[in-house]
Amino acid sequence: MSDSRVDAASPQTDSGFFGQPRALVHIFGVEMWERFSFYGMQGILLIYLYYSATQGGLGMQESVAAGIVGAYGGAVYLSTILGAWVADRMLGAERVLFLSAIVIMAGHIALALLPGFVGVGVGLVLVAIGSGGLKATATSVVGTLYSADDPRRDGGFSLFYLGINLGAFLGPILTGLLQSTLGFHWGFGLAAVGMAAGLVQYSFGRRGLPDEAREVPNPLPRSRYPMVGIIAAAAVIIIVACVLLGVIRAENLALIVVIVVIAAAVAYFTVILSSRRITSEERSRVWGFVPLFITSVAFWALYQQQFTVLTVYSDKQLDRNLFGWEMPVSWVQSINPVFIIVLSGVFAWIWTKMGSRQPSTPVKFALGAMIMGGAFLLFLPFAGGGPNSTPLLAIVGILFVFTVAELLLSPVGLSVATKLAPHAFHTQMVALFFLSVSLGTAVSGQLAVFYDPSNETPYFLTLGLVAVAVGVMLLLAVKPVLRLMKGVR
After folding, report:
1. What is the residue extent of each domain of the chain?
2. In the predicted model, is pLDDT for residue 368 greater than 80?
3. Has domain 2-484 been given CATH number 3.30.1960.10?
4. pTM for this structure?
5. What b/e string do you get for 126-146 counting C-beta neighbours within 10 Å, with b at 16 or more?
């Protein structure tokens, strides 16, 4: 194990994992299994909520069910704030990552074993908290493997993204098969098994990570621990009370998450920018992150509709007949990961080959938003076609465009968050990027309420044009944004 620590601490010389630091394989593995469980569960979650009881579901209204899925997805990324804060102030990123994996596994077990809405409530809360903690910290730990100016950094994050999408591909395929043959709870159970596999794998490899991964950059004084406990207990009591009093309902859950995430993002930017622990250069870089944050929100508001509008679209309007056999709805969610697996290595090679000549991060973000908007416009020729009217090949093509947009923005966003992060807010800056994903995901659930299968053109046209416009505005502002980023590209 000692050799692994030396290699991980020497990013300029270690290239044992496809040209990247060997320690990357440990985080690659746990994230792959976490994504297997996460996307496997999410692949069948929406149809579980709105399918009738005779089909094994809970019989909810489709728009309400889509709102819940969007709100849940937003809550996952919102909880990165909690995980990042605990990592930066109390336990360090690596320890939070390990504990979060345990919480995720418990959530999937609850979904598999507890009946009805009780299982959904307990399971989704645990998975949301655990996934949020793991996502922010895994990304931060990957960042510790590279120096700030290592040209392999974006390539390494792209390989890390490959691990994510291997899990995202296999999860919906296998849980969808179990759901369609044995029932929903068998599918949820398989997600729990996948997370258990990730936990075992990571337990063997975690000691090989660099000491920096366990560092607590801004330790909380022990005297303040009781106050943290009181605040946490009060928050739980308030949430439970709001549910019992009907303030928080299934119908308005997505909107509530949107409001909470906006408030959290404003508060977080304010705390970081006003902190005395950051330098003027670090403060400028945080300001440079603001337009990237806004563009990311617009991107994810469209992209995350794979799990809301596109799931309904696939169930109702997509021709899923393959030589007389009907493909499970969840399998559509495995199409995007296939393209990620194929193209992530290509993008990693391109960025590594181009080195300092590659497009800057703001340009990549702008192109990502514009291409994502273009993907929504590609739905227009098939709008209003009726049941089973959209060819499967058309969705494959549209999701290919989704993938190109994603690879221009998502792994690059993870990377730039670690490069722009002030030292005292290293993991929490990554959480800010995930807050943009959280807000976009919650918005995707709220937007799903307006989706009307009988009149789709206004929906796809409006959202597509808005995303393109956001990308164009960032493209026009590239130079001032780069000035704020102070040498970070």
Report:
1. 2-484
2. yes
3. no
4. 0.78
5. bbbbbbbbbbbbbbbbbbbbb
